[in-house]
Amino acid sequence: MLRVVIADDHTIVREGIRMILNRSPEVTVVAEASNGLEVVSLVEKLAPDVVVMDVIMPEADGIEAALKIKKMSPGTEIVALSMYSDRYFITEMLKAGAKGFLLKDCASTELLEALYAVRNGEVYLGPSVSEIVAKMYVDAVHGSVKGKTAELSELSPREIEIARMLAEGFTNNEIAEKLHLSVKTIGTHRQNIMKKAGVRNMAELTKYAIYKGLISAVK
Question: Which domains does the chain possess?
Answer without folding.
Answer: 2-136 (3.40.50.2300), 149-212 (1.10.10.10)
